[in-house]
Design brief:
Number of helices: 15
Strand content: 15-25%
Strand order of the largest sheet: 2-1-3-10-4
Oligomer: single chain
Structural class: alpha/beta
Shape: globular
Helix content: 40-55%
Order of helices and strands: HEHHEHEHEEHEHEHEHEHEHHHHH
Number of strands: 10
Length: about 350
């Protein structure tokens, strides 16, 4: 064997050794262990469509994540307590809930956005003569004085939005008879039974009350640019995924949000079968709504699903709600750090 051949073989062995060492030091995603990520989910929310799609289409599996879904009752305050107590790894809550927790020294991070536009409409009983949509905001709120008004529990998104609507009209919760409800379905049942006068509601319950049950009518629609502008809520990031700071840095959580990102791209693909999304929503919400109503819900939500939000997005929301900027280095981790 010639000296040249021997040297060539030697170089090949060295290169092969370097490649093997690199593979051992930096395992591929296929070698990553499957890890559990626990999601804390509030009941009855169609906003979890990306979670359902990521699970059903195998996007979690692709990212080596085993999702566990834990139902959380009681709204924002109980959800936050469970998150900080370690009952689950991540949950979706409001921007004010993030700010309030951090002001108390409870270090949280935004992993990703979920549904970034408001999904609410203010509905009154269909047999109430006033208010009407043409009254406009804030006159609509003034005509709700003394009325039985539903919102979710303290710290939840609907509670925060209702508080903002009242304060913008120069009112407080003392001016209405606030009823805290656990879910949109509960509020719809109570409205249909004439146990409530007003609800701040999301789809599919907006359409179920107005179109299917004929028990409610919309007087202020915060899903429209006009409604958002009238209420002074432009620029508000609505729904975010949160985790404790230590958990937010873990690769398994970033992989879970990457799976949600894939699901959102799937949902927003014009070629995606809307009936598949309808069937998946009905299966997970377990509600008796028509295909037409669920399609209306899904089509209204699709444009506003977004995972990647930045510190500027968060601070703009703080400004809308009159919250002071956070006094720590960063409130955004996760997918936003990769962009």
């Amino acid at each position: 064997m010639s000296l040249r051949v021997i040297r060539t073989l030697a170089r090949s062995v060295v290169v092969a050794g370097i490649i093997a060492s690199a593979c051992i030091a930096s395992p591929s995603r296929s070698q990553t262990a499957v890890e559990e990520v626990k999601f804390g989910l509030l009941p009855g929310l169609g906003l979890y469509l990306p979670v359902w799609v990521a699970d059903d289409k195998g996007f979690f599996t692709e990212e080596k994540v085993k999702p566990t879904f834990i139902n959380v009752g009681g709204g924002g305050a109980q959800t936050m307590a469970a998150l900080l107590g370690g009952s689950f790894d991540m949950t979706d809550l409001s921007i004010p809930a993030l700010a309030a927790a951090n002001e108390k020294g409870q270090d949280l991070r935004v992993i990703a956005g979920n549904h970034t536009a408001l999904s609410y409409a203010l509905q009154v009983r269909s047999d109430m003569p006033e208010p009407v949509a043409s009254d406009g905001y804030p006159a609509i709120m003034h005509k709700l004085r003394g009325k039985r008004v539903a919102a979710s529990t303290i710290g939840s998104n609907s509670y925060i939005v209702m508080k903002h609507l009242l304060e913008g009209a120069g009112m407080t919760f003392n001016d209405i008879a606030l009823t805290q409800v656990q879910s949109g379905s509960s509020a719809s049942v109570m409205m249909a039974a004439n146990q409530l006068d007003v609800v701040l509601q999301s789809e599919p319950y907006i359409s179920m009350l107005s179109d299917q049950l004929k028990k409610g009518r919309t007087v202020l629609d915060l899903r429209t640019p006009e409604g958002v502008k009238a209420a002074g809520l432009q620029g508000l990031i609505y729904d975010i995924w949160l985790a404790k700071a230590s958990v937010a840095k873990e690769d398994r959580v970033i992989r879970a949000t990457r799976a949600l990102d894939k699901a959102i791209k799937y949902i927003q693909d014009p070629g995606t079968n809307i009936q598949y999304l309808v069937d998946l929503t009905r299966k997970n919400l377990k509600i008796d709504a028509t295909d037409e109503i669920l399609q209306k819900q899904i089509k209204s939500m699709i444009p506003a699903f977004r995972t990647v939000i930045t510190r500027n997005d968060v601070e703009r929301s703080f400004a809308v709600l009159g919250i002071k900027p956070m006094p720590y280095e960063s409130v955004v981790t996760g997918l936003a750090m990769e962009k």
